[in-house]
Predict the structure.
Amino acid sequence: MKVKLKRAGIIALILGTACFAKADVIWPADADWTALMVGTDMYHDAVGDQHPGSIDLIGTTDSFSAGFWAFVENGDLVNGVASDVFMFRMRVGGESGNYVWQAHLDTDGDASNIEWIFQLVQSGSPKSRGVELIKTAIDGTTLADIDIGGNTSSWLGDLSLYSRWSPIEGSTDFHVDFAIPWSEFKAITGVEEIEEIRTVLSTSTTHSGINKDAPLGASLTDQISNVLSESIPEPAVVTLLLGSAGGLLAFRRIFKYDPEDK
């Protein structure tokens, strides 16, 4: 009995250590997200062009964007080592659901196609659900062409750690946020600067392509070049400053360099 209790204690200690080895992502306040733009307009889409609301992108040209992004320094902790975190936010017309929310990424400057899909996957088998970064296999010139083929996830983050849903005050809309450590994103994609990235936001029932809401009132047969955001601009960066009071947030800006070059 004593041996069993001792083993149980060791197992509990290991599990307890594992639980505390990884902290939740530090998410920015609502005011600290940077809106995606298309030309001089906010990245937008019509209300009610997809149902249910959880897969309906919502944004106006001048009041609020359908998409946002942020970068947080020391925003994630793995085995006591802090890492910077890159994240996207989408505004949708309802709460959660078994669907997929996608940020298709152009990282090579060619507006005719996209190279990566960064997405929150809440559909399919439990093993495939998570925050996923995956390479496109078919990156043709229209939204309908985008497909992962036989590719597998290059990175898959835990839903409970790397995504969240939050209601928008004064609205029936929700924000859905998903994140990836910058070091992982950089190593996988080869992106050196955040400003190299443009995105197409969309929603789907499958992680392999787009089959629900396209942005900017577009259809799935529209050219990718017509629905790309502007290049992600120099960000306001949230930095966690640890201190005796538990931490406070400060801000700085990135000017054309790798965020890790501090």
Notes: The chain has one domain: 24-253. Residues 101 and 203 are 5 Å apart (CA to CA). The first strand starts at residue 34 and ends at 35.
